[in-house]
Amino acid sequence: MIKVVNALSIKKGRIDEVAAKFQEPKAVHTFEGFELMEVLKNENLEDHDELLISTNWRDHAAFEAWRVSRKNQKAHDAKSGEKKQADNPIIDNEIRIYEIEHQHHPAE
Q: What's this model's pTM, rounded to 2 decimal places?
């Protein structure tokens, strides 16, 4: 299993606006190999806020299949004239991929 973290740097004061976009399940939640999503907020940074979109996947192949389908969807959206938000609250993002070595769950 792998964990993919999309670390978003957000303009101060706008984190709730971005976090709200992840409140409801989307297409990724139905994708083969998707396991879990967590959205983590950090407002304790000095110059920006941080939102971590963390997803667990069965394996690299499942994540890559979703990523390819996502690229195709974005290309389709761009061709259909979808415009980018003029005042985008997202400053930057970084994708981090981790192998899940161990998981511990509460004892029964």
A: 0.84
